[in-house]
Hints:
Helix content of chain B: 40-55%
CATH topology of chain B: Sufe protein. Chain: A
Structural class of chain B: alpha+beta
CATH class of the largest domain in chain A: Alpha Beta
Largest sheet of chain A: 7 strands, mixed
Largest sheet of chain B: 3 strands, antiparallel
Distance between the termini of chain A: 32 Å
Order of helices and strands of chain A: EHHHEHEHEHEHEEEHEEHEHHEH
Strand content of chain B: 15-25%
CATH topology of the largest domain in chain A: Aspartate Aminotransferase, domain 2
CATH architecture of the largest domain in chain A: 3-Layer(aba) Sandwich
Oligomer: heterodimer
Mean pLDDT of chain A: 96
Number of domains of chain A: 2
Radius of gyration of chain B: 20 Å
Number of strands of chain A: 12
Strand order of the largest sheet of chain A: 2-8-7-6-5-3-4
Mean pLDDT of chain B: 88
Strand content of chain A: 5-15%
Number of domains of chain B: 1
Number of helices of chain B: 6
Shape of chain A: globular
Number of strands of chain B: 5
Helix content of chain A: 40-55%
Shape of chain B: globular
Structural class of chain A: alpha/beta
Strand order of the largest sheet of chain B: 3-4-5
Distance between the termini of chain B: 65 Å
Number of helices of chain A: 12
Largest interface: A-B, 36 and 38 residues
Amino acid sequence: MKKKIYLDYAATTPIDPRVLKIMSPYFSEKFGNTMSLHSLGQEAKQALEKSRETIANLIAAKSDEIIFTSSATESNNLALKGIAFANQDKKNHIIISSIEHPCIMESAKWLETKGFEITRLPVDKYGLVDPENVEKAIKPETILVSVIHASNEIGTIQPIEKIGKICKKKKVYFHTDAAQSFGKIPLDVNKMKIDLLTTSSHKMYGPKGAACLFVRKEVKIEPILHGGSHEKGLRSSTINIPAIIGFAEACKISQKEMKTENERLTKLRDKLIKKILKTIPNSYLNGHSKKRLSNNANFWFEFVEGESIVIQLDLLGIAASTGSACSSAKLEPSHVLLAIGLKPQQAHGSLRLSLGRWTKEKEIDHLLEVLPKVIKKLREISPFKKN
Amino acid sequence: MKQIGLYTKKVIEHFQKPHNMGKIKNPDAVGQAGNIICGDTMQLYIKVKKNKQGREIIKDASFETLGCVAAIATSSVITDLIKGKALEKALEFDKAEIVKELDGLPPVKVHCSVLAVDALYEAIYDYFKKKKKKIPEKLSKIHQRIKKEKKEIKKRYKEWEKNEEEMYKKIINEKTKK
């Protein structure tokens, strides 16, 4: 097989050609600045507001509750820091889970140095947060609870509605990072009692450089970017119109295709998981077998190292990802895998395969043929091989 | 110099077809090293023979490594480079030789070459010890450092596990307090 097989959709997705087509006039014809008074500017402004409405619709929010940003990282920074500083006169406590994306983990760590108190909730072996733990951790000083909707690494989907209801009852803001789940799982910010929600365009076949933060109207929040008062003063920066237009189109497509796509991917994912566990000795699934994103499969293999697996797969034309220390810039194993109870040497042998819109069954079949050989070969190099 | 993704062509060649892989039958000495930074491990096996001048030469070498591409490639290269070397020459081995032989490593991966060199030192140490020879001071110091680092890895792993446990305990304590 010559064509590359992309199984790293959780890292980023290729843009849908339908999205690219819609974006193209906004680079050179409809290029106006939304803050300009002339018709070119106003045309851009109108397109922006229409996009806002589309995205709001996808999560049952009002359109003026959508703040456009450049990335999920920026949205998450705005959520944590913006809420922390806007409410610090009375309270100083923030609760997060121990399996958040690094942008939440690091923002929280930074807030700790500024005098805020952070509680990091443990998760069970599947990566699930116990809503009861959320309730117990909330104190009179608590400002915000932030729990990732679906894990970018192990795909585990949290009981977000239960956590939302607890936060509502306790009168604490609730933020969820839905960068991985948005467009894949139906979201309703009212039903789920969500006050802030992060999304990202490039994880759902839109362009990079667009994302948003839903901020419920009554939420007290401060900007982290100051300037020309774009986005209700919450996020100054010239609006990236082409990217936002693309983001909105990607939302429309996802909304329309969500159900059938989920069914298709779930079937492929389950086949992948079942076969790998069966054909590769000493292989284990990370995360929950059912409560997981339809496109995510994550394993660990004994006696091999993940970066070696990823590079070997790459040489065979397959793109995947790992939580091994060897692959990270910090040379530390994935905090998510450690939080679900994996020992560092187990996280060392982890592999994430994430599927998407263009994943075909024959690609999965090809991977299933190749991967056992890759693992076998690497184990032969290892001193722990079984003779 | 050709690059294939993250690594040079040379690295990839060694990774895909490692030289001198596996155990040697009846090795004269074994060196084991663990990478303090990322947790990779390596075993280096050597066979030593005296040449006509009576100098002890590394006649054969092989390895087993659990680790990343760089760890495997550096393991493979070092076994090539030390074959035929006199023991005292091998003691002067520098990790830069490995990096050079591989046409370079990504900066974040240079530490992997330390793993291979440490395994070599440990193998020579093991040989001297087995032969009840006087261990040169330099080698003895290196051995102590490697031993200390192995302890630190163990400690670090234990701490990782302890941190997890403590986090759970804290939550349970908070629960019982209420």
